[in-house]
Every structure is written in C-alpha cells, then in structure tokens.
DNA sequence: GATTAAAAAGACCGATCGGTCGGTCTTATT
DNA sequence: AATAAGACCGACCGATCGGTCTTTTTAATC
C-alpha cells in the first residue's frame, strides 16, 4: 500500500499550523488570530492557508478541534488513569491545574479565551465551542455520578458539583493571568479538595493537602 | 455662579459615549471596541472622539472606570446595605447574580470580557483592570473578615473563601452565555449558599434556598 | 455684534484585515 | 516523457482599523 507524499506533506504542515494557532489563539483569542501573524509564526505564506481551509471560520473550527485534542491528551486521559470514584473526580481537577501550572499554552487556556470571544457570536465556531464545553461538563457529571454510585461520594446533585469544580478550576485562569500566580493555583486546589473530602465517606483516598 | 454650556454638553456626550461603550465592550471586548462601530452606536462622528480622548487607550481606561462605577452602583452598594456579617457576604454574591440575571449588559459581564482581552497585554489598560479586580477581591476579603470577626462565619482563610465565591460567581458568565441560562444561575446560588451555611454558626440568617 | 474657544463633523491617511488570483514546485499517474 | 493534481507562494484587492487635519457649529466673552 502506497501513501501519497503530497498528502503526507499537506497533513504535516496542516498539523503544524494548527498547533501554532492554538498557542497564538490562547493569547490573542480565536478572533484575534489573523492569517498574517499566524503565517509569520508558522513560517508559511499567508495565501498557503487557503489550500487547507476555505476561509477563516473553517480554520477556527479546526483550531478548536486541535485544542480539544490537547485537552483530552493532557487532562482527561491522565485523569481517567486514576481509579474510578472520588480519586478520578479529583484527578480531573488536578490535571487541569497542572496544565495551567506548567503553562503549556502561552495564554494559559485556549478555551477560556475562545469562549470569551465567541459566546455572543452565533455560528459554526460557537457551536463547536459549545460542543467542547458540553463534552467537558458531561464528563465531569458522569465521573461524579459514577463516584456517587460506588459510594465514594455523597451527593444528590452531580451537576451542581460539576459546576462547582469547573468554576473553581476555570477561575484560576483570570486570577493567574491578572493577579498572583501561585495563590490562585493553591486556593483552587484547596477549595476542590476540601469540598470533595467533605462529601466523601472515604476522604483518605484523597491527598493530604 | 455660571456654568459653561459648552462644557456641560461635552461632559454629557462624554458620559453617553462611555455608557454605550461599556455595553458594546461587554459583547465584543475592550479591544473589539472600535471607533467606527462605537460612533454608529452612540450616534456621533468618529473623529469627535478625539475631542475627549487623545487615543483609544485613554478611552479604554475611561470605559473601565465607567464599568467599575456601574459595578459599584448595582452590586457593591446594594450589598453594603445588608447588615455586616454573613448576610453582607451573601449579598455581594446575590447582587452579582441579579446583575447577570437581569442582563443589565448585553454581553453579560464587562469585566469578564475585558480581562480576557487584556490579561496578556501589559499597559495602562491592563493596570486599570488589575486595579478593579484587586479592589473587588479586596472588598470580598474585608467583608468576609468582618463576618468572621463578628462570629457569623467560621473561617481561618478569608482569601480562600473570597476566591471560592468569586469563582462561583464568575463561572456564571461563560455558562449562561454558552450553555443554559437558569441552571447556571441556580447552581451558582446554591453552591455559595450551601458553602456559607456550612461555615456559619447562624445559618438561619441566610435565605432558605 | 464681533471675537474667541470648545464640541463636533468630514475628508482623508497608512496599516492591516480577510480573501483572490496567477503561477511555481513537487509528486503521483499514465 | 507527458499529464494531472496537491502544496505553496507573491502580488494584489476592497474594507476597516486607529488616527490626523481642516472645517463647521455652538456657546461664552468682550
């Protein structure tokens, strides 16, 4: 079976462009992402983009997809490596904080910036962001529900707890970017940890502090 | 004592422009705010802006000031009308939620959008946003501390609790803009309420639910 | 009523935006 | 070897950006 070298080359540069775009967009937003600056950052010509995407909107949608894959790879998958139950719930939060702490993206969080850009702009881009957020919130709820069913977590409203954890995780972004760095991470960690411990009959499964 | 009608006219249109700008910026961000669209929205000419502000940056700083005044008028001041203690802490959160629920601004929250735009862009605009955020967080901490000292709240880390309340309040914005509206408001309310009740020796001071 | 100054408007400028067009280079097919 | 197709580029387009310059309107002062 032969592979087409032209297509391989195309896919490679396509991926490289998307990776650069996620990093750029985490700083300047998905709308602040321009062909001109992306071309310079990725080391390609401006017009070359239109080989891969018909217009900016399609590029933006693909950039979201790339960012979502990164979120899964660096946060969701590692967390799912934890044993089901309260530790897996905690894992989702902890890996998210690690993602922020290690400054994987120069802008802190792609989705924070992108959602802010497009929350009032209907269209395919917003729809894709909505899908990503629904997926993340749905994962939180299902992991929490599983923990509750296994008896490791006492809650009658998994969606409320999911909202709390997401809120405490998401607030780290503006706090670290604008105010002090370590305190925000420390407080977010402490807040979720104490909350989970207060809801769990087996708090010793969670880290000391 | 005579007043100069020309200056009065200037101040009036200046205020009108700022008010329009806060609403526009709550949707498109402080950077997405352009002279052209602001001129159309405010019903003035583009070049007229430069009578009041030397450049866009100075306008942005003033827009932040106007938004901060609105935040104080509609959230801080009403909350400070509550008796000191746990009820005043709760008031800060409740009035904030009311602000979001009533859709005072078309974009939901000016500061959420503005901070997102400028958290990676050093300069006077970012400094002004930082000042506003510090002021808000400082207020939360001081009101919480006062409640703790009066014995209505049991906490040894007011800054942690302030972070929690701010996070649960701020998360409402992306959730309401992107996902469902009422559930986000309901959950944010429930989360802070249960948290304050769990920390208070006098939970009966707070609303039932 | 003439002069002066603030407010506001109109025409315009260089830069950058998203996007098009014609063409080159590379690689697979025949 | 000839042809076709995908990847990629430089030049360019109309629109909009922040901002300047000049002029007109409005209102106070003399």
UniProtKB/TrEMBL annotation, chains A, B:
Q: Which residues bind DNA?
A: 34-53
Q: Name one Pfam family in it.
A: TetR_N
The record's section on InterPro entries has: Homeodomain-like_sf (IPR009057), HTH_TetR (IPR001647), Tet_transcr_reg_TetR-rel_C_sf (IPR036271), TetR_C (IPR011075)
Question: Domain HTH tetR-type: where?
Answer: 11-71
Q: Does the keyword RNA-binding apply?
A: no
Q: Which Gene3D superfamilies match?
A: Homeodomain-like, Tetracycline Repressor, domain 2
Keywords recorded for this protein, A-Z: DNA-binding, Transcription, Transcription regulation
Q: Superkingdom of this entry's organism?
A: Bacteria
Protein name as it appears in the record: TetR family transcriptional regulator
